[in-house]
Write a structure and sequence with these properties.
CATH architecture: 3-Layer(aba) Sandwich
Number of helices: 8
Radius of gyration: 19 Å
Structural class: alpha/beta
Distance between the termini: 27 Å
Oligomer: single chain
Helix content: 25-40%
Number of domains: 1
Amino acid sequence: MQHDAPLRLPDNAANEAAEWIAANVTGKHGRMIPPKIGIILGSGLSDLLADATITDRFAYSDIPHFAPTTVAGHAGQLELGTLQGHHIAVLRGRYHLYEGLSPQHLVLPVRTLRALGAETLIVTNAAGGLNPGFKQGDLMLMRDHIGLPTLAGMNPLIGPNDEALGPRFPAMGAAYDPELLDLTRAVALRKHLHLQEGVYIMVAGPTYETPAEMHALRVLGADAVGMSTVPEVIAARHMQMRVLGISCITNSATPETAEAVNHNEVLDGAKQTMPKLDLLLHSVLHALALKEKGQLPFADAAQPTLAALPDVAANSHVAASATPDAAPDASTAKRKALTFRTDPLA
């Protein structure tokens, strides 16, 4: 099924895509089990989670209103299955503004996952390290973001607001779920994974940054730069989804290295991070499953007791930066149940 992407999607595009997926799954298995966790795999990361039990696989080009991916390192597939006891939906590849798509197209896969029943979103991306303390192969926990395109009129929420999805003016003070952040820190510590933290900044691309631009982005407070993710997070938070973000530092993005960066380097850098990211994702999913059963080795993921984690070595560490006080976010305290799930998913 080929698609010519219109400038603006129909208002019901996500529901129609979800209905199509649900009908195909129901026709094959007799029922549709909604995924609870959605995972987006960024540039060069499509081979992650290879041991997931995949029951259904759809090419983006076959799903109504989805467009094919056009960038190397993005497989362009939506998969449904199970991993670590969770029903998951995996997006192997994403869309970008520089592909000529609208902001609404960029977030269509996320809205489709929400329509299918997903409540938590884990986003990954390949990013350049603006922070001189970062090196190729590092993982960075995203504790905040700066969206240059979304601040400049390319926000996916521009246009009529669908109150069934979320409020007209959603708060973004806690875009990345504090409990998921703390759980990931504790898991990384237990697994002896060195985890950087910082602020991700989105640029539109497709050009890489000049030395002056890299310096300016660093002055703005960013630690890593990429060309994606922020619109997806905005759409997810608008729909009251919990979000966890992890950047793979695939290359240095300091003024001294500006001439050397290229897409092949980014893909090579992504390969370096894959074993660590695969372990971290598996461990986070396992910890979430234990927490749901009340069996997590620390009583409260928001205040993890590191002494209760028997695997932690004395010299293990997680690199952390001071986190500013989060702005109020009423939707964090209570996430309303959405009513736009389609009948085949019941």
